[in-house]
Amino acid sequence: MNINIDDKNEFLSKIKTLKAGDRVYLSGTLLTARDAVHKELKNLIDNNEKLPYNFVNSIIYYAGPTDTPPEKIVGSIGPTTSQRMDSYAEYMKKLGVLAVIGKGERSDECKKIYLRDGITYFIATGGCGALLSKCVTSCEVVAFSHLGCESVKKLTVDNFPVTVCYDNEQGDIFNG
């Protein structure tokens, strides 16, 4: 199934029909964020400080691209292990995040939070960062530039392949 993620009504209506294991091709805007960004966002939220970017209705991709080769839009951009972000799951709703993309299982607590808050968890295939970079049509640093490869980047993607990991019916590709 193809989903235009910039059309939030389309995204929300289609996401309700998906089952764990369904293959989806996302087109539109993703934001990258990994461990260091999550830590900084948590600190800002906890201290009631202004966020450097509006994350409402966003999809966060747990990735930190490698250096961009000449003539390319972005370097290799494979998913990072998602469990490292589990302790920040509670903050995703506070940010207004609709979905996250990573790789691997999540903790039971994280799964409960995502199910409660209606946050979809997709996985991208690990080890395919160079191939996934071919789906990126633009890349721009939008927050935390001091974090280098772990800065928040706004990616425009076309037919970015992901798999639904946990669905709205508690389906889970790791636990059948």
What's the gist of this structure?
This protein has helices spanning 8-15, 35-46, 89-95, 108-117, 129-133, and strands at residues 2-4, 23-32, 59-61, 99-102, 120-123, 136-143, 152-166. It is α/β, with parallel strands linked by helices.
- What sort of overall outline do the alpha carbons produce when their principal axes are compared? globular
Please state the average pLDDT score: 93
Tell me the distance between the termini: 21 Å
Strand order of the largest sheet: 2-3-4-5-7
Q: What's the CATH topology label?
A: fumarase
SSE order: EHEHEHEHEHEE
**Helical region count?**
5
The figure for the number of domains is 1
Rounded radius of gyration (Å): 15 Å
Give me the count of strands: 7
- Briefly note the structural class of the backbone: alpha/beta
State the low-pLDDT regions, or none: none
- At the first level of CATH, the class is Alpha Beta
- Largest sheet descriptor: 5 strands, mixed, barrel
Strand content: 25-35%
What is the helix fraction of residues, given as a range?
A: 10-25%
CATH architecture identity: Alpha-Beta Barrel
